[in-house]
Design brief:
By secondary structure, the chain is of the alpha/beta class. It has a single domain (about 1-285), classed as NAD(P)-binding Rossmann-like Domain (Rossmann fold), CATH 3.40.50.720. The protein has helices at about 10-20, 35-40, 55-60, 80-95, 120-130, 150-155, 175-190, 205-220, 230-240, 245-255, 275-285; strands spanning about 1-5, 25-30, 45-50, 65-70, 100-110, 135-140, 145, 160-165, 170-175, 195-200, 205, 225, 270. Strand 4 (about 65-70), helix 4 (about 80-95) and strand 5 (about 100-110) form a beta-alpha-beta unit. Helix 4 packs parallel to helix 5. It comes from Cedecea colo. InterPro entries: Ergot_Alk_Oxidoreductase, NAD(P)-bd_dom_sf, NmrA-like.
C-alpha cells in the first residue's frame, strides 16, 4: 500500500494514476470525499482527514509501505508562510514515527537556498522540516510547470505570450505535472536506496521555445514578450492575483532571472522530463 497526499491536486493525481497503472494499491488522505469520488471508483482507499492534522496522517500511514508527500499549493502565501508551516509540522510529527521503506517529497528547484525565494520558500521549509526522517528519502526538485503557461491559449490568439522571464531566449528548468507523477511512481516502486537523494526534474527550455510550440498548436505565429519589471504587479493583478499579494511570485521570478535559483545544486541527480509544452497546450485546447 502506498499513501499519496494531495491526490485531488495535479501532481498527487498524476502520481496516483501512474501507481494504479502499475497495479499498486493506493491510499489517499482527503478532506472532501466528494472531490475524490472518482479515485475511490478506481480502487483508491480513502482516509478522512486534513493535511494539517498529524493524527489523521498517522492513521493514513498505518500499514503503508511508502508515501508521496507534497504541500498544498498556495498561490498567494502569507509573509510568514504559516499556511505551509502547519502541514509541515503535521508531516514531521507523523512521518518521524512511521515505519516506511521510503518517502518521496515533492519540492522545487532552488529549495536548497534559505532566502530570496518568494513562493518557493514553502518548499525550502518542507525540506528543512523533513530533513531527519529515519528511512530513505527522495526529494524531487521540479522545474517550473508547463501548465502555468496555459493562459497562452488565450493571449496567443493575439500572437503574444507575455512572460516574466527577463530574456525570452534564455533557458530555464520546466516540467509537466505528469512527469512529476511518473518520477514519483518510479521512485516509490523501484529498488530501495539508502539515505537521502535529491532529483532535479525537468528540461531547459526558453520562453521563445514555449511560444513557438504554442504557435504550432494555435496554428499561428506566437512570440514571447517579456513583461517589463515595473509592470509585473499590474499584470499579475490583471491575471487574477489579489491586490497586494503578488510579492511571492515577483520575488520568485527575480530569483529565477538572476539565477539565484537554478538547476545544478551540488549533490543532485538530473532527470529529464518527457512531456513537451506542445503536448500540454494541445491537450488543454482539445
Amino acid at each position: 500500500m502506498i499513501l499519496v497526499l494531495g491526490i485531488t491536486g495535479k501532481t498527487g493525481g498524476a502520481a496516483a494514476r501512474h501507481l494504479l497503472m502499475q497495479g499498486r494499491k493506493v491510499r489517499a488522505l482527503v478532506r472532501d470525499r466528494a472531490k475524490a469520488a472518482d479515485w475511490e471508483k478506481q480502487g483508491v482507499e480513502l482516509i478522512d482527514g486534513d493535511l494539517s492534522d498529524a493524527e489523521a496522517i498517522t492513521r493514513a500511514l498505518q500499514g503503508v509501505e511508502s508515501a508521496y508527500v507534497m504541500l498544498p499549493p498556495t498561490r498567494t502565501p502569507s509573509r510568514d508562510f504559516v499556511e505551509s508551516k502547519k502541514p509541515i509540522a503535521a508531516y514531521a510529527r507523523a512521518l518521524k514515527s512511521a515505519h516506511l521503506s521510503r518517502v518521496v517529497i515533492l519540492s522545487s528547484y532552488g529549495a536548497e537556498k534559505t532566502s530570496g525565494l518568494g513562493s518557493i520558500t514553502a518548499n525550502a521549509l518542507l525540506e528543512q522540516g523533513l530533513s531527519d526522517l529515519p528511512y530513505p528519502v527522495a526529494v524531487i526538485r521540479a522545474g517550473g510547470f508547463y501548465e502555468n503557461f496555459l493562459y497562452g491559449l488565450q493571449t496567443g490568439q493575439g500572437g503574444v505570450l507575455p512572460v516574466f522571464n527577463k530574456k525570452t531566449d534564455e533557458k530555464s528548468p520546466l516540467t509537466a505535472t505528469d512527469d512529476i507523477g511518473a518520477e514519483a511512481a518510479r521512485l516509490l516502486t523501484g529498488p530501495v536506496w539508502s539515505g537521502r537523494r535529491v532529483i532535479e526534474l525537468g528540461s531547459l527550455v526558453s520562453a521563445d521555445e514555449i511560444a513557438a510550440q504554442l504557435g504550432d498548436v494555435l496554428k499561428r505565429e506566437v512570440a514571447a514578450r517579456a513583461v517589463p519589471r515595473e509592470a509585473w504587479t499590474d499584470t499579475l493583478e490583471q491575471m487574477g492575483f489579489p491586490q497586494g499579494q503578488t510579492w511571492g511570485f515577483e520575488e520568485m521570478f527575480d530569483a529565477l532571472n538572476s539565477h539565484w535559483i537554478d538547476f545544478g545544486a551540488p549533490g543532485t541527480e538530473r532527470v529529464e522530463g518527457t512531456t513537451t509544452a506542445r503536448q500540454i497546450f494541445a491537450a488543454a485546447k482539445g
